[in-house]
Amino acid sequence: MQFFGGSEISPSPPPPTVSGNNAHMLYVFNRNGVCLLYREWNRPLKTLNPQQDHKLMFGLLFSLKSLTAKMDPTSAEKGNLGVPQLPGQGCSFHSFRTNTYKLSFMESPSGIKIILVTHPRTGDLRESLKYIYNLYVEYVVKNPLYSPGAPIKCELFNSTLDQYVRGLG
Amino acid sequence: MAAIYSLYIINKSGGLIFYKDYGSAGRMDTNDTLRLASLWHSMHAISQQLSPIPGCSGIELLQADTFDLNCFQSLTGNFQLEYSEKLDVWCWRLDKDGQLEPKPFCELVMGGLVLLGTKVFVVSEPGTLHMEYLLKYVYELYTDYVLKNPFYEMEMPIRCELFDINLTQAVQKDRVALLGR
């Protein structure tokens, strides 16, 4: 787990990895599992209502993290399965791929989770997620009208995010 | 250091039927491996449910900080675990006689239903190549030496000497590279 330096937005966003608009959706959760933001660009299949979908997504990430922490083959001291871990503690994961989508995941030191779902053949998106985290810090956290833990309703953030994710693909 | 850390085979209901460790740090006891296997089984199913596009068959590759997990799922399995909007719970898809409803494969996948088949997964060093070939080969070995063994009972733990021998050969580093060709 890397901790990030200053809160300045890096001057230029990381270069796009693939061409073509290939992002499906983006979730931002806080450390209590509250969905702060859900953006959807291309999602033909919806099996659940939004609330259930967010809960299921958070549950999946939480359980996958405890699975990777327990499975970590490089450390001898792993603790018990399912013990809650602080951000940055234990072995985490940064992406998984299925035949229809790829999910990239990042957790900030304060427990903000950013999840980006893209086309399965997208490359490594770790830098892009860090850039999105920077956008969050600049446009949301530094907004004096925003209270932490509330759903994000910043128009400027949404438009910058849309623009960046479009540019990603 | 071994390129492959461990290999698991789980049956259709999430029970661990085979586990082999090839040198990961800190040994896990049997209960831990059983728990991990059934946890993976459920996470695999949930990942199908969260797909933005119809036709998802679950996680193929999980990239963790210190390892990669490659998973292969057989196409033969049960369609189970359906989310019922009406009841607000996950439930088995049963018809009125209490039997699993028979439906064509494509219809089930398109309808957001979840396929639960036999799964083989391998934990390896990050960036290890050709794991999908190894998994397919292990599944072949499973069908040849386990399923065709008249003394083997379906869905039960695997105890077949020939399977063990052939598996050990396949997992050796140079063989994995060969399988990729």
TrEMBL record, chain A:
Segment forming the signal sequence: none
Protein origin, superkingdom: Eukaryota
InterPro entries in the record: Longin-like_dom_sf, TRAPPC
CDD domains reported in the protein's UniProt record: TRAPPC1_MUM2
Short name of one Pfam family: Sybindin
GO BP, one annotated term: endoplasmic reticulum to Golgi vesicle-mediated transport
Stored Gene3D superfamilies: 3.30.450.70
Keywords carried by this UniProt record: Endoplasmic reticulum, ER-Golgi transport, Golgi apparatus, Transport
Subcellular localization, as worded in the UniProt entry: Endoplasmic reticulum; Golgi apparatus, cis-Golgi network
SUPFAM superfamilies (alphabetical): SNARE-like (SSF64356)
GO cellular component: endoplasmic reticulum; Golgi apparatus; TRAPP complex
UniProt record similarity statement: Belongs to the TRAPP small subunits family. BET5 subfamily.
PANTHER family, alphabetized: TRAFFICKING PROTEIN PARTICLE COMPLEX SUBUNIT, TRAFFICKING PROTEIN PARTICLE COMPLEX SUBUNIT 1
Subunit structure of this chain's protein: Part of the multisubunit transport protein particle (TRAPP) complex.
Protein name: Trafficking protein particle complex subunit
Source organism of the structure: Nicotiana attenuata
UniProtKB/TrEMBL annotation, chain B:
Subunit organization: Part of the multisubunit transport protein particle (TRAPP) complex.
Keyword annotations from UniProtKB, A to Z: Endoplasmic reticulum, ER-Golgi transport, Golgi apparatus, Transport
InterPro entries per record: Longin-like_dom_sf (IPR011012), TRAPPC (IPR007233)
BP-aspect Gene Ontology terms: endoplasmic reticulum to Golgi vesicle-mediated transport
Family note: Belongs to the TRAPP small subunits family. TRAPPC4 subfamily.
Subcellular location: Endoplasmic reticulum; Golgi apparatus, cis-Golgi network; Golgi apparatus
Chief location bin: endoplasmic reticulum
Name used for this protein in its record: Trafficking protein particle complex subunit
Record has DNA repair as a keyword: no
GO cellular component: endoplasmic reticulum; Golgi apparatus; TRAPP complex
